[in-house]
Amino acid sequence: MAVWVRLGGAARLGTGIAGCGQRVERALQSRCFSISTVTRNDFYKDLESQLKAFRVKTKAVLPGSAWSPLELTPGLPPERADVVIVGGGVVGWSVAYWLKKKEKIRGGVRVVVVEKDPTYSQASTVLSAGGIRQQFSMPENIHLSLSSAEFMRNINEHLDVMNEDPVDLQFNHSGYLFLASERGAELMEENYRTQRYAGAKVALFSPAQLKEKFPWINTDGVALASYGLENEGWFDPWTLLNAFRCKAMSMGVYQCFGEVTGFKYSQNQAQTEDGGVVDLKRIHHAIVRMPNSLEYQPVECAIVVNASGAQSGKVAELAGIGLGPKDTISSIPVPVEPRKRYIYVIHSPNGPGLDTPFLIDYSGVYCRREGLGGNYITGMSPEMDEEPDTSDLEVDHNFFQEQVWPKLAYRIPALESLKVKSAWAGYYDYNTFDQNGILGQHPLVNNMYFATGFSGHGLQQSPAVGRAVAELILDGDFKTLNLHALGFGRIFSMEPAMESNIV
Q: What's the CA gap between 340 and 385, in Å, rounded?
């Protein structure tokens, strides 16, 4: 037997046998009867043996089946929640943390985070290069990263959990170094002015200054360099994700490993200014399928946050987004799709030393130090017409040999001699519209909020993004940073907010 009890504002599975036994005992005592401990223990022992025998009979009737009518699937989400967050990556858990941080009454906002990959083996967060920078072209991205860097600098003031070790992000403050050719120098100067105006600490180097600062760089073809002096570098992605997750769960957020496979929603028709008709939808339930099971759990909810990264477009389609009549706004999809990127770990005993920054060459290749002992990670994005297949996370080692290594060795001659130690692949949640994040409500499904499409910089901006989405949900608008330029409206109006500094 089992009963559902309410603990701390969330449904919890309680042992009904023990609860019933206590109620029986109190009732007997109130009537001047007594029940001995031995008798009670014998009762439970006998009941458990009967249940065990029944399971054996069930398996005999259903040979080869592990199913038991007396077992509940562990990890089922609660039947009701205020907010269901689809995606348990760092952005999803950041949103969950900030929702609990901002709630007015403890337990006032019931939050469920649904993640379909219990091992996080394919999660974009843990497969990224872990960089953070303020060298962007859009003020919104600069402010997001500045705010996130401050959060990380004081992370234990935010994410410390009682009786747990302090959070150590292993932050390396070596900065980012962007190199520009003659063709890109003017844009770099323009971005530099934008970054400085927004408060970022950045310096421009001439080729001679660059050579003096980093003598191991071949400056041929370099017209200008931009170097982050503060709040830039790299850190451990898993530590940040797990810190958000542990803190949010300590505040009452419910974690569920399962896959959202659909939504139940109602819809009404509305007339547009030009006389057209659109369907306005409101989600009432998220349908969660448990891992390795055919069991589904509908979760009644008021709000859904789509933070499912590279799969955000597909999750949106489950609510009918982008599936309307052709050439109407209902047919405009969420322009986010997975793009596979390779990261290679290399070893070169003669490579650059401890002062090595996160180098971004104008050819597209990047490189940073990975720990000590001559280890580095490197990679680059392919050309648009050479995007690899995203059906798996297999690594193309020929891509390193033919594309990455020649460009890397040209810029850092010491890396002409190296050994590839390992490699992996991960997904960008690539925004095909303008390579920028999408934050806020969908115009036609007004209780689905988006935090996706960051095209490679979601990890570094996750602390500020989570706060921004929580502000939209609980306050009705952005309060800390003005991020309206990243809303869904720009996609409907076909006005891209282009970010030029995408790595």
A: 13
